[in-house]
Amino acid sequence: MSLPLLSINVNKYALVRNSRERDAPNLLASSDMCIEAGAHGITIHPRLDQRHVRFSDVLPLARHLAERHPSVELNIECEDHPGLIDLVLEARPAQCTLVPVTPGEVTSDHGWTLPRQLERLRPTVSRLKRHGIRVSLFSDCDPDAIPAFADTGADRVELYTGPFAWAWGTDAQDAATRALWETAAAAAEAGLGLNAGHDLDRYNLIGMRGLPGLAEVSIGHASLCRALEVGTPTAIRELLDALGWAR
Question: Is the pTM of this model over 0.90?
């Protein structure tokens, strides 16, 4: 069984940069550092308010990765907004993860509501796939909802792991873990690939080892927080260790 790849979300590097309106830390150099530490991919999530990754970051980063790290996948997360989808199509990442957004939210905190949003998503999924971009849709850990995700034409679902992460080490851990595994099994049965992300860290990742079909995890906040303590190479190596990657 293949191990899941680790994609590092560099949004928080951009957030720190934006706090001083200068180019430090540099987003390209930060991405290089993550890759050199062992990350298999880079994730960004441009938002309409541009509070971290800005629209002007997207194309330079896509070109940089294509030139310097051609084996590293770029994953662009975004809402289903025409301007953002146009930007994704210009950048041509390996993957686009479509995420529902509630105005004013601090971070993504829920998956798509299907089948209610099915007809909205189908044209966007189709458009992205016509341009050779793999499409993943953000999903809550609800096995009953998964069949409708397959009806959109998407390639994968990314499981929203916030509740699983918060339950880790508490009395709710077993129930949250069971929901995660049952949803992963439903995705496999529906023919969907599987990604996961949100509040994952070096501790709770261990609870995902062997998760059926898990292809990729995306981690940003926990990686940067740990990097402040031990440095980026060690922080990323700890995540890889938790996923089962040998040194």
Answer: yes
pLDDT tens readout for residues 59-111? 999 999 999 999 999 999 999 999 999 999 999 999 999 999 877 666 766 78
Structural element, H or E, at residue 217 = strand 214-219
Residue-averaged pLDDT of the chain: 95
Full residue range of the structural domain in which residue 223 is found: 5-243
Q: Per the structure, how many domains does the chain have? A: 1
Q: Which two three-digit tokens encode residue 147?
A: 């069949």
Question: Is residue 40 flagged as an active site residue?
Answer: no
Q: What is the CATH number of the domain that holds 149?
A: 3.20.20.70
90 is catalytic: no
Query: Exactly one of 40, 52, 198, 238 is catalytic; which is it?
Result: 198
Of 40, 52, 77, 238, the catalytic one is: 77
Asked about 77 being catalytic, the answer comes back as yes
